[in-house]
Write a structure and sequence with these properties.
heterodimer; A: 111 residues; 5-stranded mixed β-sheet; 3-stranded antiparallel β-sheet; B: 113 residues; 7-stranded mixed β-sheet; globular
Chain lengths: 111, 113
């Protein structure tokens, strides 16, 4: 079965420190990968998608097909980055564009 | 103001009762989804639908049912057959096949009492 793994439930850093939220998935060659974010008292929302290769709020994510990873990175964390982050690759088969979500990593950025 | 509206925000159910969670969108999105969110388990797909009058089971469909009579609406019924229904339920939509950018609702927290 397809799986997506976010090994850290909680990542705690100080403001200004680099951040890397890990994501590994169980199949290779995925054409598209996503990171979603949920800030406190807000809805789950799309943060960035692999195919766009853009940087959103200073975050980037590189797809490593060899390692089947899609880690989310930011060089200097800010307090407003504190949130729950979910990695989401698409689910294969069925002809529908459905996503599977990891268990999530809570990022806590301390002043 | 376009978006997805889920109601109610909180719902309490007695054991043995069926309850229906509402999800409405005015984004003209084709596809709609129901996910269940439990602590430490992320989001798990219950049902999804790409067009009116068509829907497919997700990974944990047992004990749930849906309908898609209108493009805007995708209600989820939690039946008495669902053994552990207490959870946070999220509805999402996206515009077309191949576009994975989901818009999420604010969720419904269901508690069995």
């Amino acid at each position: 079965a397809q799986r997506v793994t976010q090994p850290e439930k909680l990542l705690s850093v100080f403001k200004g420190a680099p951040v890397e939220l890990k994501c590994n998935y169980s199949y290779s060659g995925s054409p598209e990968l996503f990171w979603y974010v949920q800030y406190s008292r807000q809805r789950l929302q799309l943060l960035l998608r692999h195919i766009s290769r853009e940087s959103i709020k200073g975050f980037t994510a590189d797809l490593n097909k060899g390692e089947t990873s899609f880690h989310l990175k930011k060089p200097f964390a800010q307090e407003e980055d504190s949130a729950m982050y979910y990695c989401a690759p698409p689910s294969l088969g069925g002809g529908y564009n459905k996503l599977i979500f990891g268990a999530g990593t809570r990022l806590a950025v301390h002043p | 103001d376009g978006g997805i509206t889920q109601s109610p925000k909180y719902l309490f159910r007695k054991e043995g009762q069926n309850v229906t969670l509402s999800c409405e969108q005015n984004l003209n999105h084709d596809a709609m989804y129901w996910y269940r969110q439990d602590p430490g388990q992320g989001l798990r797909l219950i049902y999804y639908s790409q067009i009116v009058n068509d829907f497919q089971k997700g990974d944990i469909a047992e004990g749930y049912s849906v309908s898609r009579e209108k493009k805007e609406s995708f209600p989820l019924t939690v039946t008495s057959a669902q053994k552990n229904p207490t959870a946070f339920y999220l509805c999402a939509s996206n515009p077309q096949q191949g576009d994975y950018g989901y818009t999420f609702g604010s969720g419904t927290r269901l508690t069995v009492v």
